[in-house]
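Dear support,

I submitted the protein below through the web form. The confirmation email said the job was done, but the results page showed an empty box. After a refresh the structure appeared. I'm attaching both so you can tell me whether what I see now is the final result or a partial one.
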Amino acid sequence: MNDRPRLTVKALRRRRKQLEQSLLRVIPNLEAACNANPSGDHPELSETVENLLEQLDMVDSELPTEPCPTHCPLNGSASKHDHFVFRPNNLFFGALAELATESEGRSFDFDFDRKDDGGKSSLRRLVSENKIYWAYLPVQLFGQACGLSGRQIRAFQGIVREKSRPLKKSKNGDTIVRAGMIRAVRGNGLIRCPLLDTAKAYVSFGGNFKSHHSRGYQIVGRLGNLEDSSRLGGWLRRLGYPAHVGMDVERIWNWVGVMLNDLRELTNCFDLTIIALDKNGTFLSLNEVIDRARQHQHRSLLNTCSLRIFGPADYLTRWRHWFSHRLGYSYIPGGSWSEPDQCVEAEIGMPSISSVKETLRKNQVPQKMLALALGWPQSKVSRQLAGKLNLSRELVEAVRLLCASES
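What the results page shows now:
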């Protein structure tokens, strides 16, 4: 029997605040210790953090929960959840505040097409100044729930940010590598990479600088100060690892080892292919790079190599399927696909838009009848069948029922 006296709500909240402050004090010490020795263990600090988190969980379990409002989608269900009141301000949005306009009722509207005084896109300017980054939302939302560490999530976002865009306008906006032919070390020519499957198409995550478009980066490269976002150097800084010009060489290579191991884990999860190419045209696999990074005599050679990252051409479909599988869902709705609709059908069990339209045509079911069956405006049906909105399960099921009744 537990004889510990129960604390009042006021005392519990005060205790929770004390634990949070203690946690905020110890976390920077743990981060500093990890930066100083990334490959070592820090049991005392780690144990302190774990104890504080356990105490926070105990306090949270004793705090009374607020009643669930009737407008909550989970109201009346057995699902455990919580509610948060979020009041953002311009400081929260950071660089995005330049595109935000505050409306009545503490809401904000964003104009991503806003132009500056010179008629140029404000959003593109913020991106070019490294103030705003493109991000892959599923890994940010579900990454930790799927077993990825915060460091791996940050690295993966860095990879996605370096997705190479075509030099010429293209329908899908990706630089597609076919027959294993990749950009040569110099010039505009192509060379065949023996580590890529010639029967498959790949998308390149190799950067967009015109001088070495889609050629990747060196592992370390030229480093600036940690606060200097204008000189990111090679992959080490671009993927969020804390290397800077004043760091000891051995510590930098410790972080290189951490990064390469994280990349190996990400290749297993997201079907990436990572190769290194030196100035003489010699190819190395990721495992070969990891082995050589452990040997001092090979490090100078590795630092002259460019590390190139490739993903499958239907990467969005595959990645969404991986997240849905890890989270226990049959599929995750939404998203735009870079490859033909058949990829989506094969991966998540959804028919393609073209097959739905062909079924309607064969059974002579007009869009107006489909809209009436769904109780939708016809414009919504038209937008889904035109690919302007994601194809919904409701529409697919309605097509199946209508066509069954027609036949």
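Response: this is the final, complete result; the empty box was a page-load delay. The domain at 351-406 is CATH 1.10.260 (434 Repressor (Amino-terminal Domain)).
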